[in-house]
Amino acid sequence: MRQPRIAVVLTAAYRGAPLEQARALAVALQAESCATSQPATVVLAYPGPAGGDWEADLPEFIERRAIEWQTVDANTAARAMLYNGESDWKPSAPKYAIAEDWMQQLCDCDVWVLVGDGLSAPLLPLRPSVASDAASGCWNRVRACL
Amino acid sequence: MPVKRYGIYLSYGPTVDLHKEGLGRLLAGFLKGVAEKRDARWVIACPEWSRESFLRYCKAERIPMDNLEVVSTGSVPFLLRLYLGQRTTDAAPPEKPAEPGALARMAFRMRESVERQLASARSPVTVALVMLGAAIGGGLGVAAIALRRPGAFLGWLMRGGVYAVNSLFSRPGEEPLDLRLYRMMESAEADRLVAIINAMPDVRAWYCPTAFWPDFHRVRGSRLMCVPDVFHRDFPLGFARLEPELVMGFQTVERAIRGGSHFVTYSEHTRTRTVVGQYGRAPESVTAVHHAAWDLSGWLDPDVSARRQLLAAALRRRGAEAHAEGFAAGAQPYLFYASQFRPNKNLLTLLQAYELLVRRRGVTHKLILTGDPARFAPLANFIRDRRLENDVLCLHGLSMQELASFYSLADLALNPSLSEGGCPFTLTEALSVDTPVVMARIPVTEEVVVDPELRAWMLFNPYDWRDAAARIEWAITHRDALLERQREFYARLRQRRWEHVVDDYVAILERIAEGK
Question: Min CA distance, A37 vs chain B (Å)?
Answer without folding.
Answer: 20
